[in-house]
Design a protein that fits this description.
Blueprint (H helix, E strand, L loop, with lengths): L1 H19 L14 H5 L1 E10 L2 E2 L1 H7 L4 E4 L4 E5 L6 E10 L4 E6 L10 E9 L2 E8 L4 E9 L1
Antiparallel strand pairs: 1-2, 1-3, 1-9, 3-4, 4-5, 5-6, 6-7, 7-8, 8-9
């Protein structure tokens, strides 16, 4: 009887350990790449929600060429329009327990009202979900980025 119970207890203990390691509400459970390495990519918007309402179509109509480029040199840039001109650039870093990403724009652009702070909901190699508050309009924004 002990030979049957012991492996079951080990499996149960491992499942508890793995489930407690989950960093972000939407996953992943386990990753072999660092959090920073998973953030570094060229991203486009796959889903854009305002106060839990899907506004992806509106966003993509307004900004059909939106691209967020996050570099391993801690720099980022955003392009939105067909001429591929950069409308914002700056520095980024992971904060807290690496469950928050902060974007710090350079200079004063029409788009930069200071740092933008995203709570990371999901962080995978080809997919990042983030949530932040647009204080100018009092809205909760959730963005699902996918690899471009």
């Amino acid at each position: 009887m002990n030979t049957t119970i012991r492996p079951l207890l080990v499996l149960f203990g491992l499942s508890l350990l793995i489930s407690s390691c989950k960093k972000y509400p939407e996953g992943p459970l386990v990753s072999f790449r660092t959090k920073k390495a998973r953030m570094v990519n060229v991203w486009r918007v796959g889903k854009y929600m305002i106060d839990s309402q899907d506004r992806t179509s509106d966003f993509n109509t307004a900004f059909p060429n939106y691209t967020l480029t996050i570099g391993k040199d801690d720099k980022y840039s955003i392009t939105m329009y067909s001429n591929d001109s950069t409308i914002e650039k700056g520095r980024w870093y992971l904060a807290g327990e690496k469950d928050v990403v902060k974007f710090l724009p350079e200079g004063n652009t029409i788009w930069s009202g200071g740092a933008e702070v995203w709570q990371i909901l999901k962080l995978k190699d080809k997919e990042v979900w983030g949530e932040y508050t647009d204080y100018a309009f009092g809205q909760k924004i959730e963005v699902h980025l996918i690899e471009k």
